[in-house]
Amino acid sequence: MSSFFTKRYAALEPYTPGEQPQDMQYVKLNTNESPFPPSPGVAAAVAAECARLQLYSDPESRKLTEKLAEVYGVKPEQVLMTNGSDEILNFAFMAFADEERPLVFPDISYGFYPVFAQLNHIPYEEIPLKEDFSIDPADYCGGGKTVVLANPNAPTGMSLSLQQIEQIVAGNPDGVVIVDEAYVDFGGESAVCLVDRYENLLVTGTFSKSRSMAGARLGFGIGNAALIRDLNTIKYSTNPYNVNRMTSAAGIAALEENEYYLANCRVIMANREYTAEALRALGFEVLPSCANFIFARRPGVDGGELYRSLKARGILVRHFDKPRIRDFLRISIGTREQMERFVEGVKQCLEA
Ligand SMILES: *Cc1c(COP(=O)(O)O)cnc(C)c1O
Asked: What is the pLDDT of residue 252?
């Protein structure tokens, strides 16, 4: 820390992204990216847009917003497009949480929530997941807090039903409930259908996982038009051109080829079941997942050690050195071939 770094952030512990190693070709199953490239129209749309890079992007991302609203069955004024969904999470924390409406989220969830809370000096409470790593909706009802839940949750992969989400939203009329649906396309139930009925619901989504565009940085929020206006106040006070021209073009092209991504999600779900079965056969406990990853441990095996042995064999997964989940590995689901190599690697590690 330099002597100039402001005291305001002296205690800030930044988010730790998953490794993106450049040294060798790994079977890369550590950051929940898609193993599939973007749909065919995306490259052409981006290439065409390059000729217009001297111009600022449309601060309203109008065409992209309209296209996304059409695909999700909502009105354009219920949508805000952002630079990854991390950005809308930050905007939403800035807009809707403070000392009077502190944040609540599970103790085991997306690592960015406490970071954005600290960055914005918002008090927060972490509610322990149940013994079986599930979320009890009753823990999030009442209290006038700002609730943020990943559904499906990360890194567990476990999900709440639409009915349970509605219970939480209806149970918090005095606070915004942010439902982070980064993984919903892999078998979860979306809460977007509730945004007309609840003025306190904000659903966030991303193109990074199911739409193969982690490197483009595109996310969105869907909610009541008044919430979206508040989020725009934050956006126009932070970065009005938050979605760049190439990403916007890529997003529109991707939404026009939505079937391609839905088909990829079905492949990932099938590969997920294959991998979960193979791990169970090797004595692993695998949490029930509705995401493009699984969370698993083998009784008697140290999670950190297994992570390192796999890495030495060229297989990269994610390990969190955190109480309760130290012995788990989070394994992103890739192609069938990648998952076969992963299972083979695990067998070798267990034998060694
Ligand atoms: C990956 C992820 C995000 C956001 O990713 P972006 O790339 O910023 O869109 C948000 N929430 C969860 C739980 C995630 O795993």
From this structure: 98
